[in-house]
Design goal:
Helix content is 84%, strand content 0%. It contains eleven helices and no strands. The radius of gyration is 22 Å and the shape is globular. This is ABC transmembrane type-1 domain-containing protein.
Length: 267
């Protein structure tokens, strides 16, 4: 009971803030179209237009089915990129923290690689790994990896020095110190990295589909734009955005529950 109530309170506040953000997005969207009437009605679509396209229009059932089918593909691609990027970030961050010279040598190279636009690297990536799941893993993983690496390294470096000294005094190795002291103290940073990485993973999946695999919502966006299928275009963007918010919310709720059970005060 002592851990359940703070977790429930923190979760309710988190979801309430997220819902408020979603409402704000809808308001800004509507005001933007009102402020720039030249965008519509040929190109611009209001929230009501998108709702009609997906739920109340004459062909809404078919259109919704097509977009949801593409969404499942994109969510699968998102999972591939997210898991790949997060696992790589955890492993590399642990190596960099245990071996400082490695971080000093390779961190600037990693940041330099991150500065190269993903679009510019896409032809090279597809040429090396093809257009299948490996392409999705690489492109999605690149977007997830770099911000997660920085945040996880910060969390690992914040391990209590006293605990690390005790483990070392009793003959513990660097790996033992990492497992028993650094990783538990880095759990909040892991969740923070995961929350940031979920929207990035969706972006990576969409870009990979747009430029690489020709499947999912990324491919739908690519095909809808030159075809002037603006209803489908806006609906796909809305579905991607809502999916990002929902996945972010799921990670956030899990974070509140886990941190409350660990005795860390949820915020």
């Amino acid at each position: 009971m002592t851990t359940r109530m703070p977790a429930l309170t923190a979760t309710a506040k988190f979801l309430g803030a997220l819902l408020g953000s979603l409402v704000l997005i809808l308001v800004i969207w509507s005001l933007f179209l009102l402020a720039f009437p030249d965008i519509g009605p040929i190109i611009g679509r209001t929230p009501i237009d998108v709702f009609s396209y997906l739920f109340t229009g004459a062909d809404a059932s078919t259109q919704r089915s097509d977009i949801l089918g593409d969404l499942w593909i994109t969510l699968g691609d998102t999972a591939i990129g997210f898991v790949t990027g997060m696992l790589a970030a955890v492993v590399v961050a642990a190596v960099f923290v245990m071996f400082r010279p490695a971080a000093q040598t390779f961190m600037p190279l990693a940041m330099l690689l991150r500065s190269v636009p993903l679009v510019a690297m896409t032809p090279l990536i597809t040429m090396i790994v093809g257009r299948g799941p490996a392409c999705i893993a690489v492109m999605g993983g690149i977007i997830v990896f770099f911000p997660a690496l920085v945040m996880i390294m910060t969390g690992l470096n914040n391990a209590p020095r006293q605990i690390s000294d005790v483990i070392t005094a009793y003959g513990g190795t660097r790996l033992t110190t990492m497992r028993m002291a650094a990783l538990p103290s880095a759990v909040p940073a892991l969740f923070a990295a995961a929350k940031i990485s979920v929207p990035g993973a969706i972006i990576g999946a969409t870009v990979a589909e747009w430029l690489g695999t020709n499947k999912g919502l990324g491919a739908s966006l690519q095909q809808a734009l030159p075809a002037a299928a603006y209803d489908e275009l806006w609906a796909s963007v809305v579905v991607i955005t809502v999916s990002s918010i929902v996945l972010y919310a799921i990670v956030g709720v899990i974070e509140k529950i886990v941190l409350a059970r660990m005795g860390t005060e949820p915020t």
